[in-house]
Amino acid sequence: MHSAIAKSQRSRGVIDRYREFLPVSASTPIVSLGEGNTPLIYCQRLSKRVGRDCRVFVKNEGVNPTGSFKDRGMTVAVSKSLERGANAIICASTGNTSASASAYAARAGILCIVILPAGKIATGKLLQAFVYGAKIVAIDGNFDAALRIVRDLGESGDFAIVNSINPDRIAGQKTAAFEIVDEMDEAPDFHLLPVGNAGNITAYWAGYREYQVYERSTKSPVMIGFQAARAAPIFYNRIIEKPETIASAIRIGNPASWKQARAAIAESRGAIDVVSDEEVVAAQNWLAQQEGIFVEPASAASIAGLFKCCESHEAAYSFQKIPEASRIVCTVTGHGLKDPDAIIERMEELKPLAATTNDVRRAIG
Ligand code: F0G
């Protein structure tokens, strides 16, 4: 009996768990793949790096059905699109939105069109859109150009836009903040996350505020967002025409939720900061090798950012004098297996040995 209950809870998606906070009704057809309920992992070595008896938790969104946090928003956006009678959805993407949209469209039995910057999508993500059966269109332009086209096509009324300019996406994504508060019995003191199109920081802040209003928590965290150094429009307060970064998921020069991100940072007395590609790659390796959590480069921006807050004099927000025993959550947004190319380049070729125990023992050293 107990195991049956546990099993039914595992397969519940975010609409089922947080229906009262979401824009759905009894007549909304629910399209779910069992997203959400992701682990909030206490990280001892990360905590030690922060010091001051602080406790650091990683919210691992890479274990969602398509390997990223986008699934939380997509279950709501696709369910609502279906309710409104859409038979096709459309999105621009740096990869994860398109992977998620394709999967939920397949589940709903509707068409998904994805507009992508040619040659800039991580292998695993492109493969996902392909295998889920999306109509993929690559353009000779970046994400910002792709989103412009999607906005134009959305206006025709033929397609439902499922980028985070669709408020149903933000509504679904705020459930990650709910889960954190539910699990900690209070909001954390600090929340760190990567920022690209700025939908997720907007969603987390909305979720924390809403839970505080409903007295599920007594406070909301300081929000600290991290952009890639050469793709940091919010940090520099200007549109970046040619954003570049190894963290291709956040290679965005003109974020749609720019204003909302600014508001979240101001209201929470937080900050926006930048991390370099080198810091991102170092943090990605560190998290895999020290905590056993393998994330894609964009996700490692929150970990690189945490290190910067602790260790750099140039940090936009310094952790050197934060209250002792502060509780810090870092969201890691996508699974590492989505973006293997740079890692494959670093791997040594494995030359097979003779199949004897002695040869293998010698190789182990
Ligand atoms: N991390 C990952 C892995 C992402 O895929 C994204 C955004 C972000 C962080 C940033 O989140 O845009 O809400 O600020 N990916 C979008 C996409 C742009 O198309 O998949 P954001």
Q: For the report, how would you describe the main beta sheet?
A: 6 strands, mixed
- Spatial gap, N to C terminus: 49 Å
Please tally the β strands and state the result: 10
Mean pLDDT: 96
- Our Rg estimate from Cα atoms comes to 21 Å
Structural class: alpha/beta
Tally of individual helices: 16
Question: What is the helical fraction, as a range of percent?
Answer: 40-55%
Strand proportion: 5-15%
Can you tell me the overall shape? globular
Spell out the helices and strands N to C: HHEHEHEHEHEHEHHEHEHHEHHEHH
Bound molecules: ligand F0G
The spatial strand order of the largest sheet comes to: 1-2-10-7-8-9
Q: What's this model, at a glance?
A:
The protein has 365 residues and is an alpha/beta fold.
Can you describe what's shown?
The longest helix is centred in the middle third of the chain and has 15 residues, at 199-213. The model has no long low-confidence stretch (mean pLDDT 96). Helix 4 packs across helix 8 (167-173) and helix 8 (167-173) packs across helix 10. Strand 7, helix 10 and strand 8 (222-228) form a beta-alpha-beta unit. With 365 residues, this protein is of the alpha/beta class. The protein has 16 helices and ten strands. It binds ligand F0G. Ligand F0G is lined by residues 68, 93-97, 164, 194-200, 249-250, 296, 298-299, 333-334. Residues 68, 93-97, 164, 194-200, 249-250, 296, 298-299, 333-334 line the site of ligand F0G.
